[in-house]
Structure formats: structure tokens, C-alpha cells
């Protein structure tokens, strides 16, 4: 049995044991946000909508349902979305009844077209689909062999993600000093990737290196990825933290209580403009104004060299209920009948970014020259 199959079995057993209402307190667990179950031939993922109240694994037999899960944020975070799309394609290959390569490739192309539009901003989705389609289109062999090749490639994308995150975390942790207080935005941990994470991976590695760090966790309105998911992960890892509302970050920076700001990215343009969860721009502005370094932690799969600047990156706008559903002390926080805007990401111009940490090293300005080198691994 391959090791990921054992892992999958373990996670399923764990989820059965720990899926309950009330705070999840499991200290010892192995977590892969998304994985293939080799016993049932299904894609499985942690349902992130339920954390921190409940830890549940959901199973998918159909690629279209994986697409819906991405849209509905059962799974979210740029690299995790990419890996989920990869396993979605493995399901599509399995679902297809095609008996010749041309028809199977056509089925895979239509599945990719459906998965591609599940969310617009994170480039990892398109990146993973193009990588899988590349394998399909250059494949020679039987249809069953192609089905197997699709799963193999999806598994590779997932496994590589973990390895890349660990490398990136080593580079990033070298930028963190003992005693630092760090502001972290959104969720960039194991849950936003296959495992380990991007910016939170850096924090995790710095902590494992014995550095005494404290994290101020932006709660990240409106979906509260910081308060719900990052805080849950930090608690699991034993890393000291306080949750702050997003609009407190400026105060902590101005009063000299913060030494580093770290965040991830859903897509970074060729000039180093970083598109990330809404609020990153204001956080970076306040960091710059107070001479606090702001680091974007970005795997090369999230860098889109085809787009010259961040203004060209599609920005998702989600339903207004995510903003309007807020309650305070059990009561609705806005007048009945209010309307809202819900912009999910913003562009942080590259002049506000101190450095971009990738799996191939730390990139400093000029980003337009240096990002290209790191993507091509020169
Ligand atoms: O809307 P989400 O939760 O998918 O947004 C995710 C983020 O913004 C993360 O910070 C991001 O994917 C970058 S690092 C994994």
C-alpha cells in the first residue's frame, strides 16, 4: 500500500473519531487537506467550512462535485485548490466511459473547462489543470493507462506541494528573528495547501527551529479564515498567538509592537504585484509606513509571468451574504435589507512588498527581473 493510502486511511479513522460539535481539540494528527483514497478511489478533503467546530472529511466520486466544493469553499487556499483540481481530473478520467484516447482526452478537456471556472483568482487552479492536460495530450498508450497517468500526475502535484512548502519555509524562516511578533493575514497553513503551508509554514518552521515568536492573527473578514483556520492551526502547533480584528493591525504596527508581516498569494504578477486575500493591501501600506518588512510567501506555481501587473489579475467578488451574515452577541450586525459588496482579494503593489519567498529562494526587487529567474530556477 503506498504511504499516502495509509495516510488516507489514518485520516478517515481520525475524522470518524473527532467529528463532533464543540471545539476540535485533537493534538496529534496528520493532516493532508486533500488526498486520494486508494481503497475507495475517491477524492477526499477536510471540510473547512466546519472548522474549528468540527473536523470532518468529505468524499467525492464526481469531478463536478469537486468543482462545486472549490466554489463553496469546502476547500480553499491557492495551492489546495490546485491539488483538488488535479484529483478532480483523476475522477473525471475514472468517470469517463471513453474507449479510445481521442474521446477520453475530449472528456478530460470538458472536465477541465468546468473545473477552471470554479474560482477565478488563484492561478494554481489553471496551473494544475494545464499540467494534467499536458500529460493527457502527450500521452501514448491505452485509455486505462491514461486514467492511471492522470491519478499519478495528480498525486505528484499534491506530493510536490508539500515538499515545495517545506523548502520555502526554510528560506522564509531565515528571515524571522527570535523574539519577533508577526502579523499574519488570512489562512496560509496546511489547510490552504496540501500540507505545511506557505506563510504559516514559515512561521511553523521558525517555531520548530526554537525561535520564540508571537503571532497576531488577522481575523480576515468576511470568511474569517484567520480567526477560524489559522488560529486553529497555531493552537495545534503550540505557537503563541492572539487574534486581532483586521483594523487593529495598523495600531500594532504604529506602536512598534510588530517586527514582521507575512502573507501568501493567490496570484503574483510578473512585476511582483501580489494578489492576496482582501485586506493585504491595507496591511502592507501600514507595514511600509512603519518600516516593518512585509514578506509574501509564494510558490512558483502561484506566479503568473503572463500578466505584467496585478491590475490584470481577475478579482473574485462573492455573495453579499458572507458580509451581511455577521452577528454580534447573537444579534444581526446590520439593518435588515442592507446590501453589501464582497471583494475577495486585493492587489498589493510590489513597492510595498519587501521580498517574495519562493521554493527556489528569496526574491528581492527589482521583481520584474528577479521573479523570472526564480520561476525558471536560474
Ligand atoms: O478565499 P481563500 O480562502 O481561498 O483565500 C486564500 C488566501 O487568500 C490565502 O491567503 C492564499 O491562498 C495564499 S497562501 C496559500
Any descriptors?
single chain; alpha/beta; Rossmann fold; 2 domains; four-stranded mixed β-sheet; binds 5-S-methyl-1-O-phosphono-5-thio-D-ribulose
Proportion in β-strands:
15-25%
Q: In whole angstroms, how far apart are the ends?
A: 37 Å
Q: Low-confidence runs (pLDDT<50, min 5 residues)?
A: 1-29
Q: Give average pLDDT, whole number.
A: 92
Shape: globular
Strand order of the largest sheet: 6-5-4-7-10-15-16
Level-2 CATH architecture of the largest domain: 3-Layer(aba) Sandwich
Going by CATH, the homologous superfamily of the largest domain would be: Translation initiation factor eif-2b, domain 2
CATH topology of the largest domain: Rossmann fold
- Helix and strand element order: HEEEHHHHHEHEHEHEEEHEEHEEEEEH
In which range does the helix fraction lie? 40-55%
TL;DR of this structure?
The chain is an alpha/beta fold. The protein is 42% helix and 15% strand. It has helices at 3-18, 63-71, 78-95, 101-116, 123-137, 143-173, 199-208, 225-237, 249-254, 280-289, 321-324, 367-375, and strands spanning 34-37, 42-46, 57-60, 181-184, 214-218, 241-244, 260-263, 267-269, 274-277, 294-297, 303-304, 327-328, 331-332, 345-348, 355-358, 361-363.
Furnish the topology, listing elements before pairings:
Elements: H1 3-18, E1 34-37, E2 42-46, E3 57-60, H2 63-71, H3 78-95, H4 101-116, H5 123-137, H6 143-173, E4 181-184, H7 199-208, E5 214-218, H8 225-237, E6 241-244, H9 249-254, E7 260-263, E8 267-269, E9 274-277, H10 280-289, E10 294-297, E11 303-304, H11 321-324, E12 327-328, E13 331-332, E14 345-348, E15 355-358, E16 361-363, H12 367-375
Parallel strand pairs: 4-5, 4-7, 5-6, 7-10, 8-11, 10-15
Antiparallel strand pairs: 1-2, 2-3, 8-9, 9-14, 12-13, 15-16
Helix pairs in contact: 2-3, 2-4, 3-4, 3-5, 3-6, 4-5, 5-6, 6-7
Bound molecules: 5-S-methyl-1-O-phosphono-5-thio-D-ribulose (MRU).
5-S-methyl-1-O-phosphono-5-thio-D-ribulose binds next to helix 3 and strand 9.
Amino acid at each position: 500500500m503506498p504511504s499516502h493510502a495509509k495516510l488516507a486511511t489514518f485520516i478517515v479513522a481520525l475524522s470518524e473519531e473527532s467529528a463532533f460539535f464543540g471545539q476540535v481539540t485533537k493534538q496529534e494528527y496528520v493532516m493532508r487537506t486533500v488526498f486520494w483514497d486508494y481503497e475507495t478511489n475517491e477524492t477526499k478533503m477536510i471540510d473547512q467550512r466546519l472548522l474549528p467546530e468540527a473536523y470532518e472529511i468529505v468524499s467525492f466520486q464526481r469531478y463536478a462535485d469537486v468543482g462545486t466544493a472549490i466554489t463553496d469553499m469546502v476547500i480553499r487556499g491557492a495551492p489546495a485548490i490546485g491539488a483538488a483540481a488535479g484529483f478532480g481530473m483523476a475522477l473525471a478520467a475514472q468517470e469517463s466511459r471513453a474507449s479510445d484516447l481521442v474521446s477520453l482526452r475530449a472528456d478530460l478537456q470538458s472536465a477541465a473547462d468546468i473545473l477552471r471556472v470554479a474560482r477565478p483568482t488563484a492561478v494554481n487552479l489553471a496551473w494544475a489543470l494545464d499540467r494534467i492536460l499536458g500529460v493527457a495530450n502527450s500521452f501514448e498508450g491505452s485509455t486505462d493507462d491514461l486514467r492511471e497517468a492522470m491519478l499519478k500526475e495528480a498525486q505528484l502535484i499534491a506530493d510536490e506541494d508539500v515538499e515545495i512548502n517545506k523548502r520555502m519555509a526554510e528560506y522564509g524562516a531565515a528571515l524571522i528573528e527570535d523574539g519577533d511578533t508577526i502579523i499574519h493575514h488570512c489562512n496560509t497553513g496546511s489547510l490552504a495547501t496540501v500540507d505545511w503551508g506557505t506563510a504559516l509554514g514559515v512561521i511553523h518552521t521558525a517555531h520548530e527551529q526554537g525561535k520564540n515568536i508571537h503571532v497576531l492573527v488577522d481575523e480576515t473578514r468576511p470568511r474569517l479564515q484567520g480567526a477560524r483556520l489559522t488560529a486553529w492551526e497555531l493552537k495545534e502547533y503550540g505557537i503563541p498567538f492572539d487574534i486581532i480584528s483586521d483594523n487593529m493591525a495598523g495600531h500594532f504596527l504604529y506602536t512598534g509592537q510588530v517586527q514582521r508581516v507575512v502573507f501568501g498569494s493567490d496570484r503574483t504578477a510578473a512585476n511582483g504585484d501580489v494578489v492576496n486575500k482582501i485586506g493585504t493591501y491595507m496591511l502592507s501600506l501600514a507595514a511600509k509606513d512603519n518600516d516593518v518588512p512585509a514578506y509574501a510567501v509564494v510558490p512558483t506555481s502561484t506566479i503568473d509571468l503572463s500578466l505584467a501587473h496585478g491590475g490584470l489579475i481577475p478579482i473574485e467578488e462573492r455573495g453579499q451574504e458572507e458580509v451581511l451574515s455577521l452577528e454580534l452577541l447573537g444579534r444581526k450586525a446590520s439593518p435588515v435589507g442592507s446590501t453589501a459588496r464582497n471583494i475577495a482579494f486585493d492587489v498589493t503593489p510590489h513597492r510595498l512588498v519587501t521580498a517574495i519567498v519562493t521554493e527556489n529562494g528569496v526574491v528581492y526587487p527589482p521583481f520584474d527581473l528577479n521573479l523570472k529567474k526564480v520561476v525558471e530556477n536560474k
